[in-house]
# Entry
Amino acid sequence: MTAQSSQPAFHRVLLKISGEALMGEQNYGIDVDVAHAVAEEIKQVHALGVQIAVVVGGGNIFRGVSKSAGNMDRSSADYIGMLATVMNAVVLQDALEKLDVHTRVLSAIAIPELAESFIRRRAVRHLEKARVVIFAAGTGNPFFTTDSAAALRALEIKADVILKATKVDGVYSADPMKDAAATRFDCITYQEVLEKQLKVMDASAISLCMDNNLPIVVFNMRKPGNILRVIAGEDGVGTRVCLERPLTSPR
# Structure
């Protein structure tokens, strides 16, 4: 059964996209063609009637914990990173609205000329009205990553799952780019992710999801149609992070 013919496995999802994903093959900034391709994928999911929220990172422009931050005060650097996520959110909003997908950007820091301020009930209402909601500026606090923001926002809007978009097709026992013997997990527990220090999301985000039993699906967004496949619940697409996993994983 194809993704297109399947009923959605989830009703409300939160998609976490890194800023680097919007960079494409560039070394810096935003590739508008990539943003358009991401918007096309989101539109396909939205057309199924799935309520979709997005948290976008800012690493393609500025990251608080990076060489570009130099010896800046960490709080100041993190706030600049939050502004970078707002820029990415507005770009993604523009790409979606060019496809006639109604979209709202909700920012954790007040920038009324660009985005609405984040209010949980407002965000849920937008989703109920079939609008794609893009959360910007992380949690609005320094020292928290956009992974933590994704976990927090997903819980606040009562999402069924976090979809973590990456450049690899799931969670591996080691870095598949460096270790040819690395094996992919079909399913893995939160505890194993923490114990093995696997780079799925940061430890704070994983712990928050574990405490609230919020599943995470890690998948390769660079493969066209993968978001739709995950939404349809197709087997073999990405890795599911949850409380328990079958003894057969990794495969």
User: Anything to note?
Assistant: Residues 120 and 156 are 7 Å apart (CA to CA).
